[in-house]
């Protein structure tokens, strides 16, 4: 256990009293699950979660002490910029914290687990370091007594099991989804981007069905009332989890670690995830020629997928798109390196630590260059880490596969010196 956890958390953590605790010591305590709590000491949602989590943690500690062990530990990964605020936050917490000075590891954790907002709670297996549950906030709400510990992922067919609705009031069993590709659509009427996507998605759904593909969409509502749900669902030609079945809607949110809407998760006929970026795929492929949208190792940067630049470090190769073949040649150059990295981390059941893009010359690319203060050179090889507000730049006259591979390897080995964005 110690090896996997030290790879993730480092050698030591800090307790509320300031004492250092060796990560390796967690094994002796019987810890089998670690919750990474990304948050801050300020009020609002973090304060609310902190209180709920403290009560939840206290129950576990009490039960564990009675049973002679400790199954769960929480580690605070702070968003604080000032050490005094961090110290005050840690003193008020009954669990452990990542040392304030270990800022580099903190950023790596935010990137590794694709944390885009706080508070966020992610459970990882203490023996392997692998993610068990991406949305621990819902665990605290749905299972306050910890009866479902350790909250590991279940098959889609098990989580979705039960009656589904059509907008005419008819019901059907979830087993009707078997053998089809399924888009699990997390959305709400109060959300303007959701309504915009729904209009596009209705047309995409129609085109895919007319092409003879076995495809269904399952609406998982985040509406604030049943009336809003009914109004919104009346526009949809697919099926939905009944609004009253809040437990099943929440379990689906937990299963896919939903942190924002709209989100479209596309599953294959066995219920395995093809892509979590269904929204981007639908908007980029209006004619649905690439359905079911298996992920591409290298993407051409567009207005609709630029949001992914905020999800973690991204390699972006800027080219001069006035030459029609330049972007395609750049993608072919980067693709073998991207495929190699993706395959390596997939074998470890982990997400790749980099996304890969090629960017041409357009208004959106110009805005990105301006925002990150990049030179106008083309080709220009960069790695952009928006959450760390850092960039790494390789400005050479010719980009070769060897240069790209060495650049990526040096980044992953922490050998590159970042420049501020």
UniProtKB/TrEMBL annotation:
Residues spanning the signal sequence:
none
> Which BP terms from GO are recorded?
cell differentiation; negative regulation of protein ubiquitination; negative regulation of Wnt signaling pathway; Wnt signaling pathway
| A single GO molecular function term of this UniProt record | thioredoxin-disulfide reductase (NADPH) activity
Q: Does this UniProt record's set of keywords contain NAD?
A: yes
Keyword list (alphabetical) reads:
Cytoplasm, Developmental protein, Differentiation, NAD, Nucleus, Oxidoreductase, Wnt signaling pathway
* CDD domains reported in the protein's UniProt record: PDI_b'_NRX (cd03071), TryX_like_TryX_NRX (cd03009)
Q: Where does this chain mainly localize?
A: cytoplasm
Show the catalytic activity. [protein]-dithiol + NAD(+) = [protein]-disulfide + NADH + H(+); [protein]-dithiol + NADP(+) = [protein]-disulfide + NADPH + H(+)
The subcellular location is: Cytoplasm, Cytosol; Nucleus
Q: Name one Pfam family in it.
A: Thioredoxin_6
Q: What is its EC number?
A: 1.8.1.8
Q: Which SUPFAM superfamilies match?
A: Thioredoxin-like (SSF52833)
What are the record's GO terms for cellular component? Answer: cytosol; nucleus
List the PANTHER family hit by this protein, alphabetically: NUCLEOREDOXIN (PTHR46472:SF1)
The similarity comment for this entry is: Belongs to the nucleoredoxin family.
Q: What is this protein called?
A: Nucleoredoxin
């Amino acid at each position: 256990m110690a090896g996997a956890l030290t790879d993730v958390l480092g050698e030591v953590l800090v307790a509320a009293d300031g004492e250092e605790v060796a990560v390796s010591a967690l094994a002796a305590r019987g810890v089998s699950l670690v919750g990474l709590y990304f948050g801050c000491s300020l009020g609002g949602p973090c304060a609310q979660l902190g209180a709920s989590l403290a009560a939840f943690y206290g129950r576990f500690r009490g039960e564990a002490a009675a049973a002679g062990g400790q199954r769960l530990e929480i580690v605070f990964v702070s968003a604080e910029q000032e050490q005094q605020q961090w110290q005050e936050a840690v003193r008020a917490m009954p669990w452990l914290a990542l040392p304030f000075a270990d800022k580099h590891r903190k950023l790596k954790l935010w990137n590794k687990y694709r944390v885009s907002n706080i508070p966020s709670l992610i459970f990882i297996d203490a023996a392997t370091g692998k993610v068990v549950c991406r949305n621990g906030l819902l665990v605290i709400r749905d299972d306050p007594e910890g009866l479902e510990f350790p909250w590991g992922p279940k098959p889609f067919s098990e989580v979705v099991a039960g009656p589904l609705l059509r907008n005419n009031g008819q019901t059907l069993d979830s087993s009707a989804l078997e053998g089809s590709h399924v888009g699990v659509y997390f959305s709400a009427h109060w959300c303007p981007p959701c309504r915009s996507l729904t209009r596009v998605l209705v047309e995409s759904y129609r085109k895919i069905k007319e092409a003879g593909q076995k495809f269904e969409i399952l609406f998982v509502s985040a509406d604030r009332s049943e009336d809003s749900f009914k109004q919104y669902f009346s526009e949809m030609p697919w099926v939905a989890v009944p609004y009253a079945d809040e437990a099943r809607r929440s379990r689906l949110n937990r299963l896919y670690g939903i942190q924002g809407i709209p989100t479209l998760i596309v599953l294959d006929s066995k219920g395995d995830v093809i892509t979590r970026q269904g929204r981007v795929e639908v908007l980029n492929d209006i004619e649905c020629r690439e359905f079911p949208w298996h992920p591409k190792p290298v993407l051409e940067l567009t207005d609709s997928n630029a949001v992914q630049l905020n999800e973690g470090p991204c390699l972006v190769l800027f080219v001069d798109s006035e030459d029609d073949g330049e972007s395609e040649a750049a993608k072919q150059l980067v693709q073998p390196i991207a495929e190699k990295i993706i395959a390596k981390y997939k074998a470890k059941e982990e997400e790749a630590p980099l996304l890969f893009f090629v960017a041409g010359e357009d208004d959106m690319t110009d805005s990105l260059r301006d925002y990150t203060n990049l030179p106008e050179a083309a080709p220009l090889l960069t790695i952009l880490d928006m959450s760390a507000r850092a960039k790494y730049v390789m400005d050479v006259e010719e980009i070769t596969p060897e240069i790209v591979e060495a650049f990526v390897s040096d980044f992953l080995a922490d050998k590159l010196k970042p420049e501020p964005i």
